[in-house]
Predict the structure.
Amino acid sequence: MNFGAFIIGDEILSGKRSDKHFARLTELLGARGLRLSWVEYLGDERPRLVDAFRRSFARGDVVFSFGGIGNTPDDHTRQAVAEALGVDLVLHPDAEREIRARVAAGKMPVAAGADGPSPQQLLLGSFPRGVDIVPNPFNRIPGFRVREHHFLPGFPQMSHPMVEWALDTFYSAYFNRQPPVDRALLLTGPGAYESALLDLMERIVADYPALRLFSLPSLDANGQRRHLELGVEGEPELVDAALGEIRAEIERRGITWTPRP
């Protein structure tokens, strides 16, 4: 199963705020032996959001979307999801219950003479028809989920516990509690460049299809080649076998190597 992410907000793209979701999501997935397959950054532009969600729904990935589910004019995620699905927005009864409970607890302001949330506050629970809510342990204002997509607030304090809840509730069957390992060698010298080692890389990929091979060149401050990090990731026994073959071949070619720390 593939996992992806949308990180939404003009403030991210403009640099007014730094993204805190990508790194944390990779940590939460990695702790469960899962991997993030893709991430896409989007501004608050409804047509572009609609197009992105349509494409994503068609792929069938598990997706976490951060941001844009508020009730201000610059929040477009809820409306874009509804348009992508071809449904309308409705007040979700579970979301309404959570909002009313927050108001009753004195955690949301109430207009003078009112005995409950305002229509503007209830907009926070207006979601595309047919979705389920994602509970928010921080302030009880929920997100929503549909077709393995989870639409969450942009605030990390809220959304990251919601990610954990969704992973543990719906995807525990995919967890690998013994996460994959990756091991690599640092290659130096005149023969330690990618194009000279393509045949070796292709052979390892063909012989070990369950592993992920990676090749990461490194330059020094003057732009000169420093070393090439060549390694594999996956199940430990296969990693050891593949790395042994890589080591034997680079030694045969006279390439200097050291274990990657």
User: Anything to note?
Assistant: The chain has a mean pLDDT of 94.
